[in-house]
Amino acid sequence: MMVRDQLSMKRLWPQASKRLMLLLAFDCTIAVLYSVYGFKFLALNGLPLAPLGSAITIFLAFRTNAAYGRWWEARQLWGSLVNTSRALARQFLTMLDDDVEDVEQIPLGRRLVLHQIAFVHALRCHLRRQNPFPELAGVLGVDDAEQLRAYGNVPAAINLKIGRLLKQAREQGMLDSFRWVSIDENLTALSNIQGACERIKNTPLPRQFDYLPRLLVNAFCWLVPFGLVGDLGLMTPVASVLISFTFIAADVVSREIEDPFENTIHDTPMTSLSRTVELNLREQMELPNTLRDVQPVDGFVY
Amino acid sequence: MTDNTRHLIFATSFSDACHAAIPSVARIVDTLAARLTILHVYDPQKKTFREADSMLHSFFAEADNYPDCERQMIGGPVFEGITEFCRHQRDALLFLPASDRIGLPRPFHRSLRTRIIRALPSSVWTLNQTQKIGGSSATVKHIAVWLTSPEEGLDHVRQAAAHAETMDATLHLLHVVPEVHEGMLGSTMFSAAPLGTEYATAWLNRVAGELPQHRDVKIHVTSGNKKKMLGRLLRQSQAELLMVSRQSALQQDFFRTELNPTLEDCSSALICVAQESSSLWNSAGVGGLQPA
Fold it and tell me: How many domains does chain A have?
């Protein structure tokens, strides 16, 4: 996620450069043919560029809106994951009956919180198609991480493991039914968040929304010099490339944010959010903190 | 450092390409149970130590939870910084992604990656811009090794075999016989590379037969345009990783050394194996292997 005020041109340029350079060459050819060689038929003043441009703008705005909707929903889901994690950690640490003489009980609460931290990391890796096991080994310990290798969906497996640990706590008399139900609601919320993230990840924007605007923008950009050359002559490429850049940039920007879990600079900042969860939860457990906050790198938070 | 040490050095400039490479690094660290060093070389004229330190600790932040990970920062020129650091870690594998696309041709650009591959005594793992990052927990099941001629040696074959053994993967030996034309007369005087597919198959079979780790070796030989055919062989073999010798990874033209254009569009990750074998994957016991 970008946090700096300006979008550097070097971010847009690689995606737009090929199209723009081609258009520039084409615009220059049209301008020279018209102005130097007298090919007057190239000037199509009656070309309805303005209505066509407006129609494309509507298409692009719709597409950008849909892409932003996906990006914002992803951000909201991770916001609620942070909240649910804090709530669950509080419940794990305060709702398990704490018999000071039984040394097993306090570690169980902490173990549950560590699993909650692991869930957040595993979900991030699951969405970015990244291997979570070295990280899980650091959080849960090697043995617990090894057990999770048997599962394809690691965050769901961790959620299940939390449920099993709670069942164990209930059997040991550390948890009554009311508190069990209360905690279980939050575990279901975790499953729902994971499911919603997977839906965004696995369902692309309908291809028609992606293909048609691009096709229309390309067609429009190729037509622009014909509409301008009659009035602007040799200056046509300047105006034409500027107009084309506006449309191409809008197309590129919406395309970039439509997939918020693809490990790019436009991602939901999952690394930063999962670090926030880990720091908060470790603080709640009163564990010594050796981790740092994740800061923006070159104006981007990952 | 013992023979069995597994150490991965991830040199980063915090570019988009470095971020995109993180899943690959995580996969290697997990597969090899490797120690990870994240290395950043910064220019003190452009960045303060504090800024560089903050960026380094925020990059690949999840690695803080890895069992064996450290971050190293060096001030000074990038090439010298990386090579100097790696010179003291000869058993390590250097991970170096391609630089970001800038969208314009760079006729006078000198690739840092190429200079480092050329200068370092250790092996370099790199990704091409076209490569798609693999699945999260998917392990490497197919490893390819490209043999160009007997002159390049068999260090890379040994390491590939040892790596395939470690990963329980299938090893694919690839060779592309060049199209025969009049201009080849000169090059054949300096190379014993086979000029027919049958000879090439026999050569690769001999190489495969002498490998101590030869449980599952497949031979792929074809003839034609190297770039096109190597891509086709890689697709055929479904290899996720291609190992090449340093000699065939680099190509010298009139003005500079660059990454072999044959490998530019390669769809799998690439390891350029240094001539002096690193002990990242213990390949002891295959020292006697010589091309026929």
Answer: 1
